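Take a look at the protein record below and tell me what you see:
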Amino acid sequence: MDSEEESFIRLFPPEGPQDEGSESPEQLRREVERLKEFYSALEQDHAKLQVAKKAAEQKKQELKKELNKIFEQQLSLNGDEERAHQIFAIKEENNRLRQEKQVLKNKLEELRVLWNDPVRMLSALPEKKMVFKGLTVNKDDMNKLMLTPLIRYPLPGGSALITFEEAKVAQRIIELREHTVELSCGELKELDQCRMQVKAVPVDLLLPSALEIRLTQSSRSILVSNLPSLDISKDGLLDKLELFFSKTKNGGSEVESRDFLEDSDQVVLTFAQDGVAEQLIEKRFIQMPIGKRTYKVKISPCMSGDISNMQLQPSRCPRTVLLLGIPDVLSVESMRDALEIHFQKASRGGGEVDALAYVPAGRTGMAVFVEDTG
């Protein structure tokens, strides 16, 4: 296994709907497959270290033979100083080989410990930094980490965002830059018809191009899953979990906090004492009575991730245009209609409008960009 190898996932400019979901059996199956691949990689590392150890032993034996040969040759020589230098060099080489052998033994022992203890192996994963960059196109590789950006873009007053169905329309509007929009509305009592000048500029966002995530395993928390769907409230289920896992006969202890993971049916339990979580994780499954039935719930390590390093690069939205300099002369709805009518006309360089957001002068807004899956 190449320790210098990096995995990459590239992020595309966001625009469009973003699917939300929770952990599914298919995702769990993919996670199992990923861990199997990691086990296989560890096994290959183990084999390579064994080969390296044998090679070191063989080299040591060859040096011993060479040493004896040198001693035999030096018996007929009177150059004590030259003989001393050669002996010193051989001793140095032997010391270096002994140190290399010890390093290989230590690595082998670490691999044995990780191989026999999956929980410790999982907690050891964060020790290697991984950079994800690029796009996974092979469906067989979809169990790899995928990141979906959610970008918040502040909008000043007197501005509007227009997203066209075609990128070439947006590009054409930006190239024209200055646009004269005709306003015709009963709200303007002085003039039946007037015009306003707006400026079209591109929308540039900063997106992560490289990301390093450091994972850590909580020493006091566990993740409880495979919970049954019961006709009780979430608080009621949390109470039953706390009552069960606070008893020492069930392997638990005092529960410090309990929380449902957002958008999931999994619960994080945090104990007040060290060592309790580790013993429960080793069980993996536990029979828990709820009401008149007993359910088999799963206990897993509670992992948390922190972004240790992130690199950003500018990315231009291909179908979205920002309009600036819009005066506050119409109601929000009327101004939105006037803008959409104008920029849908092919004679004005426009095209089909997919979405439009308008912020009147004197106010501020926030646009949220998601990945464009269209």
